[in-house]
């Protein structure tokens, strides 16, 4: 058996809303390492962390990869740190890169830390003391906030995972409209979905592989398999030169941010949960197009939201009735509202109670409190005040899942086409 000593590398917080992307910076490092005869062990990893982290630029992603620990390690470390120095967006106040080198075993404590980075908040000091406690080498640039994510990206286990192929632009094209042949994206999706997914938002006519920011990414294709990813890349035509591309193994679309909880009362702000609840009221839409309703269980109740960007999902939500039982997935944001990512209908309240129909065919009206019903047409009276159950047709189906559209979905949210994974 060949035992390879491994150097784990974690990199985070190198980009800003005006440019750069930590995955591109990492791919530049990987190519420089290669030029110097240093090959990665396995694919690099793109790890999405707590979606509510305060200082994130966009999707709270950090990158990690492994290289052999050998006589070239010092050179590798120099290349990595020099590239961060050269490419990170230091002018932005909110860009505080952090790099971690680690050459030991991945311990339980490290795994726990990485889940904490998905489920809760970690301070720079906490991350630094933890890195010291495990003997990791810490490199902080400016405030060095990136060490929080870098450490987590190194240690997070990936039981369920997906791949993302990220294609990058030539520097001279940054900030200009991307030149992607959309027809070829539709063709690619037709051929490779559901092995690849999140390519297109058909409801919104939105090409989801194309970022809308001025970053170096030309497009990103997400997939369950490397083969379909490579096939997809061959099919997508771009009408501008491509700088390079890199395939990442990721925790995107695995629902790793979702914690199962037994009770509504145990859910906390900035947590993401799977919870069962009963619909309390008919969903209401407010100015701005956001839709809200409450769900409850025996422990308490919470307001659920389907926000305007979830577009047609709100139409689905509007079909809910009090008494429907749902399994809901989502996160509790700043307003303390549970933002729904998807839900499964466990039970539908498809009965409503109405006044009885008279023998003459006319619906009866109340004859007064506890005085039964009377028919205004033929004058017939009945003593019972019990309304009669009437089955109502429902647009929703029991057991079926309903999800937000691609354009409004979090990186970590598992789409329905992956629910069997
Ligand atoms: P992009 O997706 O474009 O790469 P980003 O959204 O990943 O950008 P970063 O620039 O990486 O944003 O900034 C996120 C910052 O939040 C990093 O410094 C990271 O270390 C930190 N961070 C990540 N997870 C947590 C957490 N759980 N608690 C506190 N800080 C965190």
Automatic annotation (TrEMBL):
Keyword entries, A-Z: ATP-binding, Cytoplasm, Ligase, Nucleotide-binding, tRNA processing
GO molecular function, one term: nucleic acid binding
InterPro entries, A to Z: NA-bd_OB_tRNA, TiaS-like_TCKD, TiaS_FLD, tRNA_Ile2__agm2C_synt, Zn_ribbon_TiaS
Record's keyword annotation contains Nucleus: no
GO biological process, one term: tRNA wobble cytosine modification
Domain TiaS FLD: 144-257
Residues of the TiaS-like TCKD domain: 8-66
Family: Belongs to the TiaS family.
Protein name, entry field: tRNA(Ile2) 2-agmatinylcytidine synthetase TiaS
